[in-house]
Amino acid sequence: MNTQALIETARAMVAGGKGLLAMDESNPTCNKRFAALGIPQTEETRRAYRELIVTTPGLAESINGAILYDETIRQRKDDGTPFIKVLIDAGIIPGIKVDIGAKDMAGHPGEKITEGLDGLRERLKEYSQMGARFAKWRAVIAIGAGIPSRGCIEANAHALARYAALCQEACLVPIVEPEVLMDGEHTMARCCEVTEKVLQTVFNQLYIQRVMLEGIILKPNMVLPGLTCPRQETVDEVANATVKSLLRVVPAAVPGVAFLSGGQCGKLASARLNAMNARFKSRSPWALVFSFARAIQQPALEIWKGEADNVTAAQQALYHRASCNSAACRGEYETSMESA
Which listed site, 68, 203, 232, 280, has its alpha carbon 20 to 30 Å from 313? Predict the structure, then answer.
């Protein structure tokens, strides 16, 4: 394990008021989004869409790193240039999603456990040789009647910690992503309670597995009410609840917190991240940035629709959303930017 290299990479991933672009959708997820817009669900169409993303002019002005999928990291531009080289040449750090998805957890109805530890050491070695410098593993925690259970939280936290230790052994910075889902009618207070419990358990397991906290990035959910909760708190209330929860449970040694969007619309995710930085940046021990997927990609995908003639307009939309989120990292985002 190269301790200094891990620390430097982790810091670079959240530096300069920039964040991460999650373009690590699995093929079934990508196909589902294509189908909703009438886009052909083929390997070539997925390749063309990903080329649109990685070749967006000026993307590195707002994006420090891009999370890829196994198919994506092996793909190339029309001219044969590997995507990973395109990103590196643009000054964007390439990373890779390494879990193989959340599966039903035996004995725990309604709960999931993320799989993918078998053979992970060998896969990480291959990805590192290909040029990846960080990895990502996502655990999902649902809130509902009688859940999450202690068994679900502890099993997912243990898997996250084992993954993180293997990443650091391979000199890849692990993104640790325990996502408390937005689905449901739970209150923001309930989300706060569960989020803190999950993060406490995760960091306890990271300690037990001897993971170096200075060489990880945390990718948590924001503290939000459930999507069907009658009371939806304001942007400032969400910002206050989220940062105060993190301050209680996230060690200061962690260099950055890169929030997932979790299904939030792009504008709302930007506004909430901006409020956190506007209110807490001077007191936060970690950089507060973004690691968004749909909240950056969706407008571009809706414009592109699989048509080559729409690539330029789609790239402009992608650049715009990334720029708005970069502004939010500095506490400088304004809704007027959306009409610029």
Answer: 68
